[in-house]
Design goal:
The protein is built from 4 helices and 7 strands; from the N terminus they run E-E-E-H-E-H-E-H-E-E-H. It is of the alpha/beta class.
Length: 143
């Protein structure tokens, strides 16, 4: 049986779970929290690479800042889009004001910018606020 690596959105532990088309239940081996949680996780400079390189599913990162109006407007759409990709993609947010190193490393010039990563490598990026449907369509290309 094939397994996929998934980083727990609650404690950060890497879990190997059986690959399935859909899941009714999947809990972390460490904290017992649900791996099915789709609420975007808050990344920090210290956790950024851990989530990207230890996940077999794509990781969609929203680079944002609290003072950015379009970022705040897009936040509900980002959360809504995340619900459509249970264990198909992990959605995450990185505050560019608080965690500048990853933003500089990936040459973030405007926000909001979303980058989709797979196996630690950038697959694509898009800048500007998108609707939930636009986000789902964009992410769906990489599933």
């Amino acid at each position: 049986m094939d397994k996929i690596k998934v980083v727990c959105p609650h404690c950060g532990q890497v879990n190997a779970i059986p690959f399935k088309a859909s899941y009714n239940k999947a809990n972390c081996g460490g904290c017992k929290g649900s791996l099915l949680d789709t609420k975007p996780i808050q990344l920090e400079a210290s956790t950024f690479d851990h989530h990207l390189v230890n996940s077999d599913i794509p990781v969609v990162v929203d680079f944002w800042a609290p003072w950015c109006g379009p970022c705040r407007m897009m936040a509900p759409a980002f959360e809504e889009a995340a619900r459509a990709f249970v264990l198909k993609a992990r959605f995450a947010k990185l505050n560019t004001e608080e965690h500048q190193e990853p933003s500089a490393r990936f040459a973030i010039r405007s926000i909001p910018t979303m980058i989709i990563f797979k196996n630690g490598k950038e697959l694509d990026r898009v800048s500007g606020a998108l609707s939930s449907e636009q986000i789902k369509q964009w992410v769906g290309q990489f599933i």
